[in-house]
Amino acid sequence: MTRLLYCGCSSACFELDADTPYYSSEPYTVLLNGKEQYQHNANVFSLFNLDSDTKYTVTIVFASGKTEHLTVHTTPDNCRVSVREFGAVGDGVHDDTPCIQAAINLIPRGGRLYFPPGTYLTYPLSLKSYITLELAKGATILGNPNREHYPVIPPVCVDSVTGKETPMASFEGVEQPMYQSLIHGSYVRDVSIVGQGCIDGNGGAGDWWTHFKEWSVMRPRAIFLNRCSNIVLHGITVANSASWNIHPFYSRDLSILDIHVKAPKDSPNTDAIDPESCDGVDIIGCRFSVGDDCIAVKSGKIDMARKYRTPARRHNIRNCLMQFGHGAVTLGSELAAGIRDLHVSQCYFQATDRGLRIKSRRGRGKDSVVTDVSFDNIRMDGVLTPIVINLWYNCCDPDRYTEYVWSREKLPVDDRTPRTGSFTFRNMECTGAQVAACYIDGLPESPIEKVRLENISVSFAEDAQPGKPAMQNFAEDRCKLGFYLDNVRDVEVRNCSISGVEGEPLITDHAESVSVEGLEVH
Q: Which terminus of the chain, N or C, has less C-beta within 10 A?
């Protein structure tokens, strides 16, 4: 049965009860009150331009003739106001920032701020609680590339009387100053950003993507949510952020549904969605094509983990399509507070460098425990290395090239040593791999507890090119490497197959237990 994922005042999102990754097993037609809306072939679909506080009948007619009916009732809103009434021009030339910000500030609780078609050139905008932003098809909020007019947000603000800190800004797991993000929410709740329009960070203009390594202030995100709750992003396109596109930060209860996030393949650090130390994140029915990781679940570096002790919890990633990017679904590398209860299913990865990717390193700390994580029902085409667990990650830290990071000796276990639990990868079909089927490399002093590979098939491209399966110091180029696991205590392989491998299909080093049943080699 088709289920309702979200119904707001002007849009609704639905998910088919299917078991195929991202795409439905058969095409279907969507009708609203008996009138055909469109034909579709994905497991998640949406309706827009609905009237508030109205009952609708949604009908899904499948190619096979099967029909389903659902009744939905949109939520009421207090008012629907256009940004044009506040003087926004939407011609892509005028600075519409003050007009839009005034509209956000003045719209009443429960109100809906509507962006009609047009290009709204703006500097950063600040959200407030209990409102809906609706972007019509053809409406674009476009970031002005002149960074001199972007306020600098301090990492923390200090109460002048009590000395208590209020956290404000961060990047790559460290509290540090950053330019205010294009859509910036701090300590807000019950906000929905919906519609078929676009939020475009305009990162390719100005110097956001060229000279940033020289700056002491971190680049903005397209959407930054600091300690927010009950946030919905539905239907919109987010594009070309100066750095990460969407960055929820210590936030909870987030629904990110049927959105499209895109940036050029060579754009630096343009991750699609990076939820950091968040609790309760649903990312369902989304499409990604970016210059870095598509989804990177994080929980800070060691100082932030010790300070706030907030792991990433209760994340569901389902029915998503990842096209291009360094990693499709990544955990880390900033995971010092740990990651718990994360489940990835029914996703389709195309032409990413890596598929399911876990990256950590010495120095993330004893609280960096990754547990209750599952990956199930995944399809990959043209992914260079489908599965990677890398405990030797050598990026984004000042000590990245030190012996402490790269030494293969068994170092003493201390407060800086991360712990990595059990992982299950099951029901995966991977075609066109090139570098390795699976590359898992744990620490000798803190081995990965268990890896279970079940019902996984990997075939290599005939013209596969060598490459490095993981970002680590002194990494060797590999090509058509099989299932490689080092420093994993318990290895279990069930009903897996591999085609076109060069060398041994399964390589295990420094394992206490290896159990293999039904490994086929073609």
A: N
